[in-house]
Design brief:
Keywords: ATP-binding, Kinase, Multifunctional enzyme, Nucleotide-binding, Nucleotidyltransferase, Transferase
Number of helices: 24
Structural class: alpha/beta
GO biological process, one term: sulfate assimilation
Family: In the N-terminal section; belongs to the APS kinase family.
Radius of gyration: 35 Å
Largest sheet: 6 strands, mixed
Organism: Homarus americanus (American lobster)
Oligomer: single chain
GO molecular function, one term: sulfate adenylyltransferase (ATP) activity
């Protein structure tokens, strides 16, 4: 029947003050409240105030007390109250300590005997006999006419911040990298300095790379654990103390706890550090040093405006002091650096303290020879034995050298090859998705020539392009490779045909690329490397990148999906989501539209404004196409992670094709999407399913398919589209941008002439 209060300050409140806060009596109830105050477990004071309206704890500062129902005021002749005569189960809260006797000392002293100690929970007491209301004892306190709020100023100027990382995504990655990572990173600074932005960005970065992290945001904590605290100095101190203890528990569990709090007082931040260091947990103080005038200009929540108008009192930076850290571990200048740059400043110290592995920060590993060693490497290449490689091999060399397949350092040795074939991942430096093997086939004669050498040169059309070091040769088991990678060994599958025609041995080794691969086809400017794309996104101030791969022309159904994805990201709180329109630029089968035509068509779509050029980056992905369905689509998604993309749009039957003989889909149309949501090592990406779009004959445009209006929708297949283009006919208005259709139509008409 008792309600235990929280700890508060009593010194500024007297019985009269408390009495004034009591509501009118709703009914004749017991005559007094007994106030028990304790500094530890010893009862030190008894005060009676007002009339009793029930059992209710209250809150007032640094001491703990309970309000207990009594029948007489402490000054009355009755000095003690009888113990209950009914069963203890009727009068005691479950799991509470035994009942506490009434005080027997003189009322003038208002002291309870020291032999009667309060345990961590208040004791059960007898029911008041004068009350007509029956209060049945249970584990929960009884309902009251209204709660009593003795002295708290509730926080109202707070806004709940929604994490970018979902619970499902967080659950995928806990412990994925192995090793203990527990620590606390404490962001401090003025309101509007960028603490929450930095902490959420760092959280997203770590979680997407397999490091468990969680952000304890100041506003969020005041919505829950600390919602009974205001902004007085005492409440601010208690706010930080509680959060420090919670962060310590998170860190102790192996999670990187990210705390974003104004925390204006040095002594409070030092206490937070001490709480961690006393238990051997690393604590990093990050000062988000943004000038007051910049914070006021941002004023996202409108708090500075209210503080200047006097609506909010005691606002840090305006009429309350902020004590700057004297020796923070990191200082962030958010008004001078981008979010990405600030995040990497914090990552550097986590790397220095070995909180995170090197592979977390080195996400793209380019394999080019350093500029100052290039001349020497080229001379060495001329002196080494060499092997000629095919155009397909050169495309894979470009993929490796630019870092698309990081952490691979070259063509796969047998250990990497087996991991890829059997697990779909590389396992030696944390789990990294690698669903398809990237290998260098060589002939038996080449193997015999190169066997025993420590390095050899790769030549394309007679020109040295790379050095392969520490080569390892192993059998090219073609049938097994195809059955595992493609789910078929059909010899008429176009990529399987190339595998069967390649060498009987595979050679793995570390690659040193002598030059960046150029194709001199007028499109090299669009072949941006992962590092160049990252720089481009930073320049655009992108806070989210969503990638869309395609090997076909863009129609308005594709555009609708990309537009809708951007809308969803804006609604989720991103400010500038950027689309990476990323057509595949390596080898494709002969009946696919050539890259040059596709790029011209994509430009027409952008020029007509179907896609916004200001928020779209058009670039070429250099990988060859394998038509390996769900196995290959994992590679397509993993490679986009190297660009910094964090969202990936997957369509129907990705990387699929009809069976060469039966002409039915070789892979289930939905399996690619489903596999991506389960694939290991892709946690940086959130997979966005492709919503089915069709031509809405009523609206005269492409729209998301509505089964309830099935007769109103027309599905325009690729076969029908090609037939229309060859015959010079136009598709329905709204199917494709007119100038983009003209590019496609001209291409198919040229084939007809040939």
């Amino acid at each position: 029947m008792l309600w235990r209060s929280r700890k508060t300050t009593l010194r500024t409140y007297c019985p009269t003050g408390l009495r004034s806060l009591l509501p009118p009596d709703p009914a004749p109830l017991p005559s007094a409240w007994l106030l028990c105050e304790t500094k530890t477990d010893d009862v030190s004071l008894v005060i009676s105030v007002g009339r009793c309206i029930g059992w209710r704890g209250s809150v007032v500062g640094t001491l703990t007390y309970w309000l207990l129902p009594v029948e007489e005021l402490p000054g009355d002749p009755v000095n003690a109250h009888p113990r209950p005569t009914s069963s203890p189960s009727t009068h005691q809260l479950s799991r509470d300590p035994p009942a506490l006797p009434r005080p027997t000392s003189s009322p003038s002293t208002h002291q309870l005997s020291s032999t009667h100690q309060l345990s961590r929970d208040p004791p059960a007491l007898p029911r008041p006999t004068s009350s007509p209301v029956t209060h049945r004892l249970s584990r929960d306190p009884p309902a009251l006419p209204r709660p009593i709020n003795c002295c708290l100023q509730k926080a109202t100027n707070v806004t709940y911040q929604v994490n970018h990382v979902s619970r499902n995504k967080r659950g995928q990655v806990l412990g994925q990298r192995g090793g203990f990572r527990g620590c606390t990173v404490w962001f401090t600074g003025l309101s509007g300095a960028g603490k929450t932005t930095m902490s959420f960005a760092l959280e997203e970065y770590l979680v997407s790379r397999g490091i468990p992290a969680y952000c304890l945001d100041g506003d969020n904590m005041r919505h829950g654990l600390n919602k009974n605290l205001g902004f007085s100095d005492e409440d601010r101190e208690e706010n930080i103390r509680r959060v420090s203890e919670v962060a310590k528990l998170f860190a102790d569990s192996g999670v990187v706890a990210l705390c974003s709090f104004v925390s204006p007082f040095t002594k409070d931040r030092e206490l937070a550090r001490k709480i961690h260091e006393d238990t051997g947990l690393p604590f990093f103080e990050v000062f988000v040093d943004t000038p007051l005038e910049v914070c006021e200009q941002r004023d996202v929540k409108g708090l500075y405006k209210k503080a200047r108008a006097g609506i909010i009192k005691g606002f840090t930076g305006i009429d309350a002091q902020y004590e700057k850290p004297e020796a923070p571990n990191v200082v962030l200048k958010t008004h001078q650096c981008s979010v990405d740059e600030c995040v990497h400043q914090v990552l550097e110290i986590l790397d220095e303290w070995e909180i995170i592995p090197k592979s977390v920060t080195e996400t793209v590993k380019e394999l080019f020879v350093q500029e100052n060693k290039l001349a020497s490497a080229k001379n060495e290449a001329e002196s080494l034995p060499s092997v000629n490689i095919t155009t397909l091999d050169l495309q894979w060399l470009q993929v490796l050298s630019e870092g698309w397949a990081s952490p691979l350092t070259g063509f796969m040795r047998e250990r990497d090859y087996l991991q890829s074939q059997h697990f779909g991942c590389l396992m030696d430096s944390g789990v990294s998705n690698q669903s398809i093997p990237i290998v260098l086939p060589v002939s038996t004669s080449d193997k015999e020539q190169l066997d025993g050498c420590s390095a050899f040169t790769l030549r394309y059309e007679g020109r040295p392009v790379a050095i392969l070091r520490k080569p390892e040769f192993y059998e090219h088991r073609k049938e097994e490779r195809c059955s595992r990678q493609f789910g078929t060994t059909c010899k008429d599958h176009p990529y399987i045909q190339m595998i069967n025609e390649s060498g009987d041995w595979l050679c793995g080794g570390d690659i040193e690329a002598l030059e960046r691969i150029k194709w001199n086809d007028g499109l090299d400017e669009y072949r941006l490397t992962p590092m160049e794309l990252r720089a481009k996104f930073r320049q655009m101030s992108a806070d989210a990148v969503f990638a869309f791969q395609l090997r076909n022309p863009v129609h308005n159904g594709h555009a609708l999906l990309m537009q809708d994805t951007r809308r969803q990201l804006l609604e989720r709180g991103y400010h500038n989501p950027v689309l990476l329109l990323h057509p595949l630029g390596g080898w494709t089968k002969s009946d696919d539209v050539p890259l040059k035509t596709r790029m011209e068509q994509h430009h027409a779509v952008l020029k007509e404004g179907v896609l916004d050029p200001a928020t779209t980056v058009l670039a070429i992905f250099p990988s060859p196409m394998m038509y390996a369905g769900p196995t290959e689509v994992q590679w397509h998604a993993k490679a986009r992670m190297a660009t910094g993309a964090n969202f990936y749009i997957v369509g129907r039957d990705p990387a699929g094709m009809p069976h060469p003989h039966t002409k039915k889909d070789l892979y289930h149309a939905q399996h690619g999407r489903k596999v991506l949501t389960m694939a290991p090592g892709l946690t940086q990406l959130e997979i966005i399913p492709f919503r089915v779009a069709a031509y809405d004959t009523e609206a005269g445009k492409m729209a998301f398919y509505d089964p309830a209006r099935k007769p109103d929708f027309e599905f325009i297949s690729g076969t029908k589209m090609r037939a229309l283009a060859r015959s010079g006919e136009n598709p329905p208005n709204g199917f494709m941008a007119p100038t983009a259709w003209k590019v496609l139509s001209n291409y198919y008409k040229s084939l007809s002439k040939e």
